């Protein structure tokens, strides 16, 4: 087999096809020709633990499962043996370990049968490992290493993945025969050579010629909430007109994916190897004409800003939060309350030094340097976009000379007017909190209000259309406090009507930049109560249909609700203001 074509891995490269194949799980087969050239660490065979984090030579990466009970399967091969690993949160054990001396080209097959791996060497069964402790084991499409736990050193000829557990005879029949593309159960295969046109994760990246459509690169991470929701809606609006790419950051690497082509493979750049020229050349090859920064939370901020500025490509900066003013991004101080957009750097530094003990994200941040670098970055942007006037005014206090355009996001087409005046007559009166009610969204306000209503025996039912820090799904014995659980974004108008809601409470204790929940409630015809903060208060003052209360505590809301219980016509009048919103 010395004449076999191969790709030579030097211990720092990976080939990325797809992270995991969701359709290939529990029973499947890996087949590969390899010639390892370095030893790997031999761990004990086990079903639990994280032994695979040191000294491995992952020729197939055990990629991280999407859930706690789902693991990616990988293979580590050294000149001293072969091990099979599986990987998910807090879980990277070797479920099969086979020490053996390997000095020449060797055919390796790992057959998973109902989550249990077996090892075949040159077509012969040599070992059956331990069954997985997880309910799902998935095939991986990342070859050459798992950063930072170990990279393969040696030669790789081919990899084949079959969607079933192959027998010894089937393996022996195909060891040296090239596939004909019509073998039953052959999910995919890759023939490697020194010039393989794959996305090799090093500085030597080969990109196919871009199409004639202009390219936009969105900088974002999957952080959920309104930020991600707005970005997804916007991409859907423009994807037919532009080639869309997304840039994300995961475990010391930059991931760039083509949004329009679901079958394309991501381009991955190790951050330590990504310099100005590498990044600039890559964007040119992709035909990127505009960079849209949706947010920078979770990124190595200064490094990414530097790369973008040096690229000389036009960029827009959208303000989904207050990250550009403060790394705590929501303007909550070390005491857990809104700082009233403090601008004194001495006060801010003292606050960050206190917060940093609890939050590694903002550890060791120099706030003066932070704002100085962001000032430079915002100054070079073609446009800085705020989703509300209140957000613009807050950011202007930190960067008074930066021009800011206000552009309100459009609401999804699924939002419709569903309010019914009869809901006001319900006993008890139904009030709703919408979304994921965590600390900044006022979960303490919610539970204090619940307790006060119970104590005073008020005829009010609180319905959380979403989740809280404490409850993912809950119904109290008296059915006066209900947490319905996570919902799809397109359902909110329907859910408000289904639960016969009269009033929506937005309990955020710090300013929101837009607040989809506020706008969706108002557009669906439901009056809203909010504190005198940020975009929710701005929306109520602009459209009517609600009440802005002070101070920021549960008693402010309680006193208003008691008043409205005695005068439900006021709720109806507020609802009428929203008929044409």
What does this structure look like?
The protein has 581 residues and is of the alpha/beta class. It contains 13 helices and 30 strands. An 8-stranded mixed beta sheet has the order 19-18-17-16-20-21-22-23. Strand 20, helix 4 and strand 21 form a beta-alpha-beta unit. Helix 3 crosses helix 4 and helix 8 crosses helix 12. The chain is globular and about 85 Å long. The relative contact order is 0.08. About 4% of the residues have low confidence.
What is the tally of helical segments? Answer: 13
Average pLDDT score? 89
- How far apart the termini lie comes to 73 Å
Give the amount of beta strand, in percent. Answer: 25-35%
In spatial order, strands of the major sheet run 19-18-17-16-20-21-22-23
Give the helix proportion (percent range). 10-25%
Radius of gyration, rounded? Answer: 28 Å
**Helices and strands: which structural class?**
alpha/beta
Largest sheet: 8 strands, mixed
Count the E strands.
Answer: 30
- Name the overall outline: globular
Query: Ranges with pLDDT <50 over ≥5 residues?
Result: 195-212, 356-360
């Amino acid at each position: 087999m010395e004449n076999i074509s191969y790709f030579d891995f030097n211990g720092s490269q990976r080939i990325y096809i797809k992270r995991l194949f969701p359709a290939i799980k529990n029973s499947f087969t890996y087949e590969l020709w390899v010639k390892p050239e370095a030893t790997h660490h031999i761990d004990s065979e086990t079903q639990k633990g994280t032994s695979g984090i040191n000294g491995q030579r992952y020729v197939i990466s055990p990629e991280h499962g999407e859930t706690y009970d789902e693991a990616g399967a990988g293979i580590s091969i050294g000149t001293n043996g072969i091990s099979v690993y599986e990987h998910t949160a807090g879980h990277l054990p070797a479920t099969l370990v086979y020490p053996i001396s390997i000095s020449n080209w060797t055919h390796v097959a790992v057959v998973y049968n109902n989550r249990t791996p077996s090892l075949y060497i040159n077509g012969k069964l040599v070992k059956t490992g331990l069954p997985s402790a997880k309910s799902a084991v998935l095939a991986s499409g990342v070859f050459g290493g798992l950063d930072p736990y170990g990279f393969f050193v040696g030669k790789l000829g081919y990899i084949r993945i079959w969607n079933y557990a192959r027998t010894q005879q089937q393996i022996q029949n195909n060891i040296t025969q090239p596939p004909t593309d019509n073998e039953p159960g052959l999910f995919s295969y890759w023939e490697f050579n020194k010039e393989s046109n794959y996305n090799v994760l090093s500085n030597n990246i080969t990109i196919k010629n871009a199409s004639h459509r202009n390219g936009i690169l969105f900088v974002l991470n999957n952080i959920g909430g309104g930020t991600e929701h707005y970005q997804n809606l916007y991409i859907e609006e423009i994807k037919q007109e532009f080639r869309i790419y997304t840039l994300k950051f995961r475990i010391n690497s930059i991931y760039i994916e083509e949004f329009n082509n679901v079958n394309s493979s991501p381009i991955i750049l190790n951050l330590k190897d990504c310099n100005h020229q590498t990044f600039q050349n890559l964007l040119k090859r992709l035909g990127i004409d505009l960079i849209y920064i949706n947010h920078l939370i979770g990124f190595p901020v200064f490094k990414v800003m530097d790369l973008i500025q040096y690229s000389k490509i036009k960029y827009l900066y959208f303000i989904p939060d207050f990250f550009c003013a403060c790394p705590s991004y929501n303007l909550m101080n070390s005491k857990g309350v809104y700082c009233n957009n403090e601008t004194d750097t001495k006060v801010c530094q003292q606050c960050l030094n206190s917060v940093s003990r609890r939050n590694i994200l903002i550890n060791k941040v120099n706030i003066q340097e932070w704002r100085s670098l962001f000032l430079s970055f915002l100054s070079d942007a073609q446009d800085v976009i705020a989703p509300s006037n209140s957000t613009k005014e807050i950011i202007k206090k930190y960067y008074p000379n930066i021009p800011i355009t206000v552009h309100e996001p459009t609401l999804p087409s699924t939002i419709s007017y569903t309010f019914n005046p009869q809901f006001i007559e319900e006993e008890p009166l139904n009030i709703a909190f919408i979304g994921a009610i965590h600390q900044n969204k006022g979960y303490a306000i919610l539970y204090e209000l619940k307790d006060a209503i119970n104590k005073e025996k008020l005829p009010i039912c609180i319905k959380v259309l979403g989740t809280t820090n404490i409850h993912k799904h809950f119904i109290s014995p008296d059915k006066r406090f209900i947490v319905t659980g996570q919902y799809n974004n397109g359902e909110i108008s329907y859910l408000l009507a289904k639960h016969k809601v009269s009033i929506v409470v937005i309990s955020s204790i710090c300013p929101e930049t837009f607040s989809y929940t506020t706008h969706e409630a108002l557009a669906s015809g439901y009056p809203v109560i909010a504190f005198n903060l940020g975009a929710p208060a701005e929306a109520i003052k602009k459209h009517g249909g609600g009440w802005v209360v002070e101070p920021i505590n549960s008693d402010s809301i309680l006193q208003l609700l008691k008043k409205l219980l005695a005068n439900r016509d006021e709720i109806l009048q507020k609802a009428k203001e929203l008929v044409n919103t």
